[in-house]
Amino acid sequence: MRWLVTGSRGQLGSDLMDLLSARPGDTAVGLDLPDLDITSPSSVADAFAAAAPDVVVNCAAWTAVDDAESHESAALAVNGDGPGVLAAACAASPGTVMVQVSTDYVFSGSVTSPYAEDAVPDPRSAYGRTKLAGEVAVRSALPDSSYVVRTAWLYGLNGANFVRTMLRLEAERETLDVVDDQRGQPTWSRDLARQILALVDRRPPAGVFHGTNSGETTWYGLAREVFRLAGADPARVRPTTTEAFPRPAPRPAYSVLGHDAWMRASLSPMRDWRVALSEAFEAGITA
Question: Which residues are catalytic?
Fold first, then answer.
């Protein structure tokens, strides 16, 4: 298969490119700014002409959650309009499949049990609204040949993320206050990349899938596990509240995602987050 990976220098995109490079019979073109602007039909057309993709995985996104609150139109161009441009190009290339990476922020976080794939979205932030717009654009243009894969709390060996920040702060501070009233699923980008490849290989009916590692914890719980794996004392991490760290964009208090769609597709859900994090440390994740 021929793959086009947008946002290929990010956490997920770089892992996808790495895995695809080792797959015999597959070729992958990875593009990122400034070489590809997904909001530009002409730029996307050039990318399709060069890659002639069978599969497009859109990892490109405006991920500055707080900045989106004051720049929603700019975030919408990337997170909403851009996926629509890619989907239109896929629709014009019969047989091309698209994977749109989305987020837990499409939900309000006001529930107390895992969100099913068919739960009604109710975003509370500009970031969530713009990512939902991207989901709608892709599913509308490609109802039979697209997958929306929602992820959350993503970390990887590349780019800025919570795990790498905790490793840096562990070396800089004696103690650390971390929010303990937001629950979610830490997700290793390499595990998500593997799951996306498995999804495309299996090719179940089009729809929505939740691409998060299994289990759940809080940011505080994650930070303590990071400290433990780094050989530091987890007791140096202290619990605090969301209220103590006000941010422009509201954070979902509970964004645990259900995984039933994987089982319906005869695919195993992603493994427990603790196992994945331990392997990420073995792979050499650093501050």
Answer: 127
